[in-house]
Design brief:
about 280 residues; globular; single chain; binds 2-amino-2-deoxy-6-O-phosphono-alpha-D-glucopyranose; 3-stranded antiparallel beta sheet
């Protein structure tokens, strides 16, 4: 796991966009796993800028979104379908047939979930997965106490998540109670993952994700076991991390960044060595 601590939300967004752009330059037909929420908005704005200014090409990109509320129409401004078109898809040259977002109003939900996972596999798996994080350390809509082996599935949203996301809706009662989400297994199968977080309200979740034990009540902690994760956090989101991590991981424009910090974990009797 590599951790980059930035001074601001803007810097976090630029670093994340550079990683995604780099991925597309290296592999123009990349399969991207995409996230919604306020956190990646700045990253998407940067990607749109790079597309418009120097022609970053999305024509061969295939995308799979992490999740969608159940019960909202695509036209609903709070649907993740609407969000993705507003912030990215309407402004770049991605082909509509290459865009995949879970259908929040399927006839057969179980079939929809199975189809989604099969399609990801058929496209060769996700090359780069972008993640935000919930205040309760959820990723996608994988709420605490999720089964780590879950694939795409229906989830009941936590009260905390409903409260946190109510800011986007007129009334808290309007927030859907259920969603369809890629599971932890689906996410962990991605070849590379970037996790973004900004603000003091994410500091505890980031601490649990990076430094806590790997446990289902902190779903993001499973990322410690993925072989290629870059965590990009602003200094507020990093504020609860131990000083040694912050010191080593702060972006320093004049210095090479030493990022080799290791930590041992013991999980169900197995020793694991993680590079932080
Ligand atoms: C939602 C999404 C997550 C996202 C999280 C945090 O619950 N399903 O993918 O990471 O919110 O959102 P925000 O970035 O707005 O804090």
């Amino acid at each position: 796991m590599r951790i980059i601590v930035t001074d601001s939300y803007e810097e976090m967004s630029t670093v994340a966009a550079r990683i995604v752009a780099g991925q597309l330059y290296l592999k123009p037909n990349s399969v991207l796993g995409l996230a919604t929420g306020s956190t990646p908005e700045g990253m998407y704005a940067n990607l749109v800028k790079v597309h418009q200014s120097v022609g970053l090409d999305f024509s061969e990109v295939i995308s799979f979104n992490l999740d969608e509320y159940i019960g909202l129409d695509k036209e609903n401004e709070q649907s993740y379908y609407y969000f993705m078109h507003k912030h990215l898809f309407d402004h770049v040259n991605i082909k509509p047939e290459n865009i995949h977002i879970p259908n929040g109003n399927p006839e057969n939900l179980e079939e929809e979930c199975k189809k989604y996972d099969k399609l990801i596999e058929a496209k060769g798996g996700i090359d780069l997965q972008v993640l935000g994080i919930g205040q309760n350390a959820h990723i996608g809509f994988n709420e605490p106490d999720i089964k780590f082996e879950a694939t795409t599935h229906k989830v009941k949203l936590d009260e905390e998540t409903i409260k946190a996301n109510a800011r986007f809706f007129e009334h808290e009662e309007d927030v859907p109670k259920y969603a369809i989400s890629m599971g932890i297994k689906t996410i962990m199968l991605a070849k590379k993952i970037i996790l973004l977080a900004s603000g003091k309200n994410k500091a505890e979740a980031i601490y649990k994700a990076i430094y806590g034990s790997v446990r289902p009540d902190a779903p993001a902690s499973i990322l410690q076991l993925h072989q290629d994760v870059v965590v990009i956090v602003d200094k507020d989101a990093a504020s609860l991390l131990p000083e040694k991590i912050k010191r080593f991981c702060k972006i320093n424009k004049n210095q090479e960044q030493p990022s080799r910090i290791y930590k041992f974990y013991i999980i169900e009797g197995c020793f694991l060595l993680c590079q932080l």
